[in-house]
Every structure is written in structure tokens, then in C-alpha cells.
Amino acid sequence: MRRNDARNPATYRWVILAVLWFTLLVSYFDRVAIAAALPFLSADLGLTPAEMGLVSGALLLSYTLVQVPAGYLSDRFGQRRIILIALVWWTVFSVLTGAAWNLLVLLAIRFVMGAGEGFHPPPLWRMLSNWFAPGRRSLPLALMLTALTLGPALAPSIALPLVSGLGWRWVFFLTAVPGVLAVILVVRYLRDSPEHADLTVHTTPRPNSGRRSWWVPHIFLTFAAFFFFGFVLYGLMSWLPTYLITYRGLEITSAGVLSTTPYVAGTAGLLIGAAVCQRWFNDVRRRFIAVGYLATALCIVGTVAAPTVTLAGIALTLAGFFLYSGLGPFWSVPMDVVAPHEVGTWLGFINMGTQIAGFVGPVVIGALIQATGSFEPVLVAMIVSMVLAALCLSLVRARTPTTPQPVATP
Questions:
Q1: Which residues contact 45 (CB under 8 A, 6 or more apart)?
Q2: Both ends of the chain: CA-CA distance in Å?
């Protein structure tokens, strides 16, 4: 990085955002590619629906367990180095997924891979909060989080043709390519903050504020809301191709298209939702997000009631739009209300909510399907989850700063 770039954080922060976006895209693609491969992987290895749910959830279990330690380490030792370690870690085990030969090996590989993936979000949130001012983070967050929709959107359209042409194992072998590229970009361009742009300073002195209090009610309500959000998010990621192919009777090409459209719509929802919220609803972000969750619930009702695959696909696409519409504002709320030097730790804790749901959700969904032989109880559970997420957010009473603060310059 040239020295004049380092002295212009107002410009260089967009480079930081672009690299963070790409690392998040690679992370989500690697994570959800297994959903597209799962019907074929399970046939090859002879997995039951419940075992398929365990495979989907194994990564999220270890991912969840490392969230708070990852946040603490990124606050303590710097974000760039933790992101780099995480990238190398999960890329190696993503490739190894393609070499699994039975259920136990597959579960072990995905579990270890999840720990690497779990070290990624806390330093990512902390780095973004370092470079962007309070009250002006919703839109940058939404731009970065489009990776969360594009990753799942790209996975079926790339992975399903690979499965057809080369077999399911090559879906994972080829994840080495974006992983290596992401490592190169992190080494070359990422810097922890404007003050650390020359890489000569690695930690920021902390204020002596005494022992941390872990009882922060609005954080726990946010945690609960993200849990219920995560049940729906990861339930769709893990089971949508199986739902469309097995329960709606679609051929693989059509299933690939309808597995993608909710996430394409979610990308639009992310950007439109963040822009609208930051412009008109910055003081009532939690209510804005809650309305989006209720709209998602209504769209899932439409999916259950849809008499045709086309109408079900339209309802699922709209559900994707509303599900993601509040995600940028959602993450900006805790960033604004916790101490700057604890952002990684607290956001790691909140992110545990959706990751716990990401482990529990696919397993519960697999068990429900195995017990009932139908996907409709799963969709009902998703509706209830969205309503509960909206309720949790409606109970949050924290007031957050909305006046933009200047970003510090060296």
C-alpha cells in the first residue's frame, strides 16, 4: 500500500470494505456449497435425512464455539492477522471435504473447518467499525453483507454444474482457488485501522474501565433475535435445494435457478433496506428490522399456501428480499452501543446466536422431515421464528448514537 493511501482513510476505507467483502463471499460460498452437493453426497455415502442435518450443522457447532474467543483475540492482537489465519484454516478443510469417505470423517472435517470460519466474523466487524463512523455504518455493512446473499446465490449455480460434470467432490477441491486469492488480497491490502495503516502498531491502548459487565439486556435481546433469524437463514441455506428437488419435484436445472433467486432478491433487499433505513429510520432501526422479519413470515406463509411451484418460488424470492433487508442496520446497532475496543468481543457473542441456530436448525429440520415426511412443518417453524425475532427486537430499548463522527486520521 502506498503511503499516501495510508494517509487518506476517507478513500482507503472503501478498499478495506472491498477486501472484507471478498473474504466474506469466499467464506459463505465455501460454507453453503455443501447444500448443493448434499443430495448427491448423501446418496454416495448413504446418509439418512437426520445424518444430512448433522453434516449441515457440524460446521456451525465449532463456528459457534469460537465466536467470543475470536472476538477477544481480534481486539487483543489485531484483526488482519486473525482474518489471515482463518482464511488459510477453512480453505484447507474445505478442500479436504472432497476427500471424505464416510459420515464420521465428513463430520470431523466439517467440524474443524467451522472453527476456522468462526474466527472470521469478529475481526471483520471490528475492522469495519474502525474505518467507518458511528451512525454511518448501515450502508457499508449492507454493501459488505451482499456477500452473504451472493455466496449462497452463486453456490448452486456453480456447484450443481460441477456436480453434474465432475462429481460432488470437485465442488470442494476447487474452493482452493478463491481461498488462495483471498489470502493474497488480505496480505496486500488489509489494515486494522487508519492508525495502523503502516503495520507498525498492532494494538490500541484500552481505557481502564474495570471489569467487564456481561449483563447487557439489549445485547441479549439482540442475541435472541439473531438466533431466530439464523434458524430461517441456515434452514434455507441447508435445505432449499433438497426441498425443491425432493418435495417440489423440480429437475436439477430448475432447482438451481429457484435456489438462487431468494439470495439475488436478498442482495437487493440488503442494499435497499440499508439505504432506506439510514436515510429515514436511523433512530428506529430495530422497528424497521422487525417489520422486515414480519414481512418475511408472511412470505413464508405464501410459500406454504402456494398451489404451484411458480408461486412458491415467487414467495420464497420475496422472503429472501425481506429476510435480508434489515441485516445492515441490524449489525450497526450493537456497533454503536458497545465500547469501541470491545466491538469484536460483543459482536462475536451476538453472532453466536445465529450460529447456534445454524447448528440446531438443520438438525431439527432433518428430524422434522424424517418424522413427518413433509416440509410444511419446517416452513411453519420458520414462520414462528420470524415472529419471535421481531418480538425480541421490539423489546430492545437501547438508544444508539446517530450523529456521524469523523474517522480518525494518523
A1: 100, 101, 102, 103, 106
A2: 15
